[in-house]
Amino acid sequence: MKNEPANTSGTNPISMLRSTVRAIEPYVPILPFEVLADRLGRPIDEIIKLDANENLYGPSPLVRDALADLDFPHIYPDPENRALRNALSDFTGVPSENIFAGAGADEIIDLTMRLFIDQGDNIIDCPPTFGMYSFDASVNGAETIVIERKDDFTLDLEAIVEAVSVHSPKLLFLASPNNPDGGLISDEELRTLLALPIIVILDEAYIEFAGIENSRLDWVLKHANLIVLRTFSKWAGLAGLRAGYGAFPVELLKELWKIKQPYNVSVAATEAALVSLADSGNLLQVVSEIRSERKRLSQMLGGLPFVFPYPGRGNFVLCQVKGISASGLHQALSAEGILVRYFDKPRLRDHVRISVGLPQHTDILATVLSRIFNE
Ligand SMILES: *Cc1c(COP(=O)(O)O)cnc(C)c1O
């Protein structure tokens, strides 16, 4: 039996959709962890999930306690997120009047589009990179001008400069470290881009793994056209709770306040973020363990005959796979309960991205890989 309601109104609801929505490809959800485990016929705690750059070292133990003891889950959170913005100001050294809190960096990417995009405006995207920039552009009715990165995944600055003069795009999205290769943008590149008539959104989702000294968050105090995004999802292990933030020039942030949903960051996410900042010394210690493990993972992978890791700075390692199929490797690993990321995209079809796990995850991966390669 088909589950379709009778149309008694004489209208065609689908014809009323925004044309931008109709133009978007059908929704293909990412399978949740439980469903994947079920399909692979394994209990969830035997799956090694190295496909989404989550922090497998987990959140601060103080987060669980704090969430169990929430005082006011029945009361709406502060629309101005004052406590969190003040704590972020202490943590980053940027005044709280420059800081905005969101339900993950993803929410702020979308809000930034909503702030600037009129139907038909252009943005620049530099793939291979994080998929949300072009996704949110299409949702918000922007045209995406694609400036592919060079073979080594660095930015094609000349092409960006050219595209800015030809298409007058409003926004340029850049991740540093970039996902999926883990490369950083240099100061010189960023200065060149900031001199263009465009707003640069610098996404620092992984900056803690590169070393916080590589952050350009405080540049928003000197550049009226720079926005820097960060998140608690990766370094603080809060991906499931949705907490991120952005640093904005004050003039822009005044405008953003006008369009935000009042209760965008939940009481639970706010509390988890506050507790993480209070425990940041310990969390950053774990980040340094993850950096050591990244090195060990890269060395292990680099020792294999068909795998060529890139020297990335995030909590993941992008690898080119030669002589065997990357998608086949991805499949063979999933069959063993190890999930890595395969991108079915032109530049990445011979690559896989592997998140840094715990030392025992690296060890199991090494064993399974050597078995696969010896078959
Ligand atoms: C994971 C990731 C994010 C998502 O951050 P959330 O705070 O979880 O929304 C943003 N940018 C990049 C480049 C990422 O890889």
How far apart the termini lie comes to 47 Å
Order of helices and strands: HHEHHEHEHEHEHEHEEHHHEEHEEH
- The quaternary state of the protein chains shown equals single chain
Range of helix content = 25-40%
Major sheet, described briefly? 7 strands, mixed
Q: Predict the CATH topology of the largest domain.
A: Aspartate Aminotransferase, domain 2
Which structural class is indicated by helix and strand composition? alpha/beta
CATH class assignment of the largest domain: Alpha Beta
Shape: globular
Unreliable runs: none
Kindly state the number of beta strands. Answer: 12
Under CATH, the homologous superfamily of the largest domain reads Type I PLP-dependent aspartate aminotransferase-like (Major domain)
Radius of gyration: 22 Å
Under the CATH scheme, the architecture of the largest domain is 3-Layer(aba) Sandwich
Give the distinct bound molecules: pyridoxal-5'-phosphate
Please summarize what this structure is:
The chain has 375 residues and is α/β, with parallel strands linked by helices.
Describe this structure in words.
The protein is globular, with a radius of gyration of 22 Å. The N and C termini lie far apart (47 Å). The chain has 14 helices and twelve strands. The strands form three sheets. Strands 2-8-7-6-5-3-4 form a seven-stranded mixed β-sheet, sandwiched between helices. By secondary structure, it is α/β, with parallel strands linked by helices. It has two domains: 138 residues, Aspartate Aminotransferase, domain 1; 213 residues, 3-Layer(aba) Sandwich (Aspartate Aminotransferase, domain 2). α3 packs antiparallel against α11, α4 packs parallel to α11 and α5 packs across α6. The site of pyridoxal-5'-phosphate (PLP) has 13 residues, from α5. The site of pyridoxal-5'-phosphate has 13 residues, from α5.
